[in-house]
Amino acid sequence: MLRSPHYRLDDVTEVRRLVAGHPWATFVSATSQGLVASHYPVVLDPADPDGLTLVSHFGRPDDEYHELGRHEVLVVVAGAHDYVSPSWYPAGELVPTWNHVTAHLYGTPEVLDEEENYRMLCHLTDHFERGREGGRSLLEDEEGTRRTARGTRGLRLRVTRFEARWKLSQTKPATTVANVVRELEPVNPDLAAEMRAVHPGCPVRG
Description:
It contains 6 helices and 9 strands; from the N terminus they run H-E-E-E-E-H-E-E-E-H-H-E-E-H-H. With about 210 residues, it is an alpha+beta fold. It has one domain: Electron Transport, Fmn-binding Protein, Chain A (Pnp Oxidase, Chain A, Roll). The strands form 2 sheets. A 5-stranded antiparallel beta sheet has the order 2-1-5-6-9. It has a 4-stranded antiparallel beta sheet with strand order 3-4-8-7, with helices on both faces. It holds the Pfam family FMN_bind_2. This is PaiB family negative transcriptional regulator. InterPro entries: Split_barrel_FMN-bd, TR_PAI2-type. It comes from Kineococcus rhizosphaerae.
């Protein structure tokens, strides 16, 4: 990850917001057989309301491929991102870039037992079903969903360190930032909003 100090994001609250808003994560493990990567949803553990603890699950046999619980893993969470064209810059600036908000989260997963795993899967399902019209619950068929749950391995991961970046044109002059935001607004409003948050003087849409 680019380590320029202009883009460092050290605020745990902001990283929690990133995870909450972009729950589809990439898990990377350096196993005895080499690198392994998988993709699963993550949510913040409600038992750790101020810290940075994730809960998720792996489908079997991914847990064995990752040697889950035996070593540290990397969890990559990518937020809003997009290409930034030099055509949005003043004449003479020709180098494009990619603006993004990204976090690399590290920790050794705790593998949940069967009962904890089922509770976690209920929580995960309820989290994403909440607010949906006709939202469903695993408890509507507990016997059946418990059988299905045996094909998964739940995990809890307390993040012991992280590297996060928000690369949002911090090195550009205010007039250039404002123009980039204007160009992004109709096609990527989430990234435009992230830029306005980092550049409080940037004009709002209007």
